[in-house]
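Problem 3 from the worked examples.
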Amino acid sequence: MDNYLHRQIGKPGLWRRSGRFCVIALIFAFAGIPQAFGQAILEGERFHPAVANQGMVATSHTLATEVALKVLKDGGNAIDAAVTAGFALAVTQPRSGNIGGGGFMLISKGDGSDPEAIDYREKAPSAASETMFQDDQGEVVKNRSRFTHLAAGVPGTVAGLALALERHGTVSLKQALSPAIKLAREGFIVPQRFTEGLEQARDRLERWPATRSTFYKDDGSAWQPGERFRQPDLANTLQRISDQGVKGFYEGKTAQLIAEEMRRHDGLISEADLKNYRPVVRAPVHGTYRGHDIYSMSPPSSGGTHIVQILNILEGYPITESGHNSADTIHLMAEAMKLAYADRSKYLGDTDYVDVPLQGLTSKAYAKELRETIDPMRARPSGEIKPGQPGPYESPETTHFSVVDKWGNAVSNTYTINFSYGSGITVQGAGFLLNNEMDDFSAKPGVPNAYGLIGGEANKVEPGKRMLSSMSPTIVRKDGKNFLVTGSPGGSRIITTTLQVIMNVIDHGMNIQTAVSAPRIHHQWLPDEIRIEQGISPDTVQMLEKRGHKVVSRSAMGAIQSIMIGENGTVSGGADPRRSTSSAMGY
């Protein structure tokens, strides 16, 4: 044991990113050995969160973090700060922050009242049809649901953020929009990641004149690091919302601009679709894990359901003793993930349109049945796994941010336009990108979407329906008090990314920055492979392969922004180093 630990701790594992060093070697290699022995080896932590005692904001862009933190310092609550951050990210991070998309917000008050979920997911236009992405032979037309005007669902972000503020905020919508309008009109200094994104997506973005003129200079070059990027059309769009409220987006000039954009290119969103859009207040999915209450997003998100389902399965195993990212732990996680994603393919959809067996999927009894099908020493081929029988029915580029205020109120918000830069289509004269969320429907049952996820009848296209999502804003309570606020972008990998941060904190005792930074794994049933990040040891990979797993190494997964609240009220923020502009700040 001594020699093993010295070998692991002595390995170089640092990489430079945005002027910071981050450790990427095996984290908590000593998991499962006596705590006192571990403390004797490592003095202090290898990753250090931002720590404060009044409030904390963790977002994927420093400028958004700063303006949201100022709201807290000025006496605003977590909802005020979250809405301010949401609009600011629509300016500073147009590839994923948005007013042309939609998402989910989870709110948990510090007074112990029941958490609340606001569903502002996009909806299919009223003219949408089940076969709209198929040809005359019934085959799916590649990219029709991704890079055309048909790909856009009716946006929900503006209505959702406004509803959160109306129900729980203390500042006006005008106040919440003010920093975003200033950033759009006066501009902000472009970071390296911004330039890289524009270059990588150039072929797709330059197809559309309004996108080209919005995001590239007159000579066709991308904005470079250190240059100031201004968005006057977006500033005017945000100003109309500030002056007129939600109607400033869903009616009037902005709605006309969206509808005209659709008519020019055979899109479906009409002014009536926009005027009729409404967000929905829902009860979150609720489960328990080792004495903690897990609250996450309910359908049309699949995220909360399957996070609870996977945790229920894993609760029957001694994960702490198995150790973080050991072959035993990864094997059990992968087997549990397969079972959950198989169920996702059949049962999940918009509960306003289909019955989802939510109670069965999240029950401990069903988890026990599934656990009994897992061989602790051998991988079960995905081809042998079918959706289970959970019990009776009851009547991927995304942005996440987390906020906690001095009263203990917590907000976990995830929103998206789907792909990086969504459909790539900018609304002419309005300055924002349209989502391509229609790809999250089942274009044809059994045919995978862009993330390889299989969908069924429950998620078929229907007018006015919300498409299935993996977004998983999550809040964990301990002894009735908010304890962990988390969530991530990442398409199909959102569920497993969020799951692992929860497990890293509860099972492995990590501080929040370590929990966020640790290497991740992912299995989604099909394709039948465990995807791993850099930092999983070759020895572990070999052991997994001997058990029958196919293991593939891929790029980093997710960009999770998390906050943990200590028993003494101290708040710790963990910003994900996988996204170079991420930041956590408190006061």
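Problem 4, a separate protein:
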Amino acid sequence: MGDFYTGKVVSIIPSRSQVGLVSVNRFLLERLSYETNHVFCSDVMKNMQLLAESLAFDDIFIRLVTLTSYLSRRFINFIEDLVFRDVGRGSQDSEISFSGNHGRYLCSIYQSVPGNCWTSSKPPDARASLLVCDGINTDLKENLSVNKSSKIGEAKYSFWARSIFRGFMLPLFGFRIAWMLGFGCFRFTCIYVRNTHIWMQRLISRVLRTLHGSSGDIGWLQQTPGVPPVEDGTNRFTEILHHIRNGEHTLPNSLVYLLIPGLFSNHSPLYFVSTRRFFSKMGLACHIAKIHSEASVEQNAWELKQYIEELYWGSGKRILMLGHSKGGVDATAALSIYWSDLKDKVAGLALVQSPYGGTPIASDILREGQIADKEARRIMELLVCKLIKGDIRALEDLTYEKRKEFITKHKLPEQVPLVSFHTEASIAPGVLATMSHIAHAELPWLHLPSFGQELPESVQAGRKVPVIIPLAAAMAVTALHLRLRYGEKSDGLVTCRDAEVPGSVVVRPDRKLDHAWMVYSSWKKAPNEPDASEMCEALLTLLVEIGKVKQEQEGMT
């Protein structure tokens, strides 16, 4: 502090405000500021020393004055730091203008500072002040040029750096695009190969499922463990049929006989007509169930239940049923579901060529997962639902899948007397020319006068023309198909093994009969062979005997 008081030159230390200024020559500003403060403080200190000596104050007063001047100088430096810091935050143009103005401002200050340099309001030498200002401006210009050149250099460097970086990144982008394209092609190829593999597997599965067909389903009832065995009643049936041919009719009049038609019976006027007429001539109460044959099995079961109850309460007699084809399946469904209501009203059931276990014809047409399964289903829906106004479930319920589900859920009561009858269709070449008489068409233009009296039956029959179709030939073709594909004997629609109900008495005649022979009269009748009505009578007679045996067994137990 002694050097500061006496006005000696000390080492220059830059302040924080001078560090923050970028555009002004730091060294000149520091020197100018220091010399200005030094000259001013030296003059003040001399005057204070003289005043202290004259007034005889001690050193404490001098120390207070010195501390006050130091604090005021620090405050001025703090204000300058704030001003310069705000100026330094401006743009480049603001820094240039500020630097020029600040240089002129420093020159004016330097000229107006009292002290050893100038003792009056004007400088003793104007050239010195100009030199100082010129030196400051020259340094400022040099600094600006250096800053501009440095910024230009930095811009050039950044431009070349960006160019080099882009030059290096261009191959990387190209490699990335090539990688994405290659990976996309590889992924697409893998997906295509995978989809092709899946499609081939599905196609092979469909082909195998189509070729396999119903091979594993035919005769599944006999392969199921725990089912009761069947009993062969062919010999007894042959004996009864022989007695009937000789005129021995033993069917009791204490029963009501109900004939249950099969699929598409609503469109066949002669379905069971000859059989009912044959029974009526013998004085027996015989009825044909009026059900919607193209409905589902469960719906027909409910209708049969209602029909049986009406017949029972109307006649007071038990019902002996004979069902053909789907009619036998509907009857077994009624007994399985509503046995608690029908056990005292039903005397027995004879199933004639009924697909109790299912039929391969319906399964092969409606099986899912095979070739053209959707197209086949659409065709059948068109035929069954649109043309004949039926329900597709009538055909679905005869498939192996639906029959397995139903039989597993609804067990057939063991107390019911059952007879299973199945035949084998002929596949000889001569059968292809066989015609079947399925209906009569009345001639509308043939009107005979009755004269108030009923015309004889022969005259009325003369006005009707029989409707003949090659139904036997169609059955022969389908029977040949089933024989060649599965090696199974059938009547054209139902295989022999699927027609046998577990726990029933099975009748297996040696005569070649197709599926439609039992309900339609043949165009060519053999006089030495029994007709369908006589065979139905023989089956019901056998069923009555089986019912009596079961009643005796139940009475003994």
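Solution to problem 4. The radius of gyration is 61 Å. The longest helix spans residues 126-212.
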